[in-house]
Amino acid sequence: MSTEQTDQHTTAPAPGPGPRSPGDRAARLAVTVFPLLVIAAGAVGLVAPAHFTGWAPAVPYLLGVVMFTMGLTLTPPDFAAIARRPWAVGLGLVAHYVIMPGLGWLVAGALGLPAQLAAGVILVGCAPSGTASNVVTYLARGDVALSVSVATVSTFLAPLVTPPLTLLLAGEYLHVDAGAMVTDILKTVLVPVVAGVVVRLLAGSYVDRVLRALPWISAVTIAVIVLTVVSGSAGRIRDAAGLVLLAVVLHNGLGLALGYAAGRAARLGRPGSRAMAFEVGMQNSGLAASLATAHFSPAAALPAAVFSVWHNVSGALVAAWMARRGRTRA
Description:
Number of strands: 0
Radius of gyration: 18 Å
InterPro entries: BilAc:Na_symport/Acr3, Bilac:Na_transpt, Na+/solute_symporter_sf
Distance between the termini: 30 Å
CATH class: Mainly Alpha
Keywords: Membrane, Transmembrane, Transmembrane helix
Number of domains: 1
Protein name: Membrane transport protein
Main location: membrane
Structural class: mainly alpha
Largest sheet: none
Oligomer: single chain
Membrane topology: Multi-pass membrane protein
Shape: globular
Order of helices and strands: HHHHHHHHHHHHHH
């Protein structure tokens, strides 16, 4: 429920043709403000990198904060929804962990990316679903329950899936210590998410009071991660910005298109296919940035930093287009 937690699925009402609700307005505000916040953070990192280069060791802990807030939003009905539609959730997981890693490998090879950037693009593809995917699905009038289910399970499976996939596809570019990567994902993703779920179960009434603040805590934290990653390789960004942006746009755009196509091929209907598009095309790029910084280099984290901004912009635009099409056909 990759990088980029612009809103929480438990606060988004089910999509429908009726009047737009306050929750809808809050979701739109978050999706609009978050990319701007990340762009501003990246710009600061480029202009004044010397002030933030020492922050890199804090990135895993910052990601842990993001994942803890995600866990706080999960409730028993979310897990029950997974059990009700195991086939559709399984299809979403297979599509996510086949399409995006494969596209990352193909894009890196087709563009002839340097080893560090190629490994970074592939690592983004091997990450679990992005944390903003469920709210973007809601804005697109998609199947929010399916989106939440796929994002949740893909996050819990990340320690088992992301490292071996990265080793398989990125091993030709750089040395990949899959065992150490498993440990890092457990510490920075699984443990914080489980802790958040437990806190929600034990102190749900208190958590409910701060639910609206969680997306903004998460958004600011992700912005700080991007600031740190960008400041750590500001010079390389200036040299390779165009190439990295092209790789990210291709990776994300093809992921959205193929995710939607997979949903249509599986006859999930238009709402289900929209959910599939965002669950496949949007990644937890905060996790990818953290892993790239820890296991590869700041340069390898560049694709994740750019993806953090771009997939929220593209997701919001595609969601608006889908919602408009849905109202036209209604």
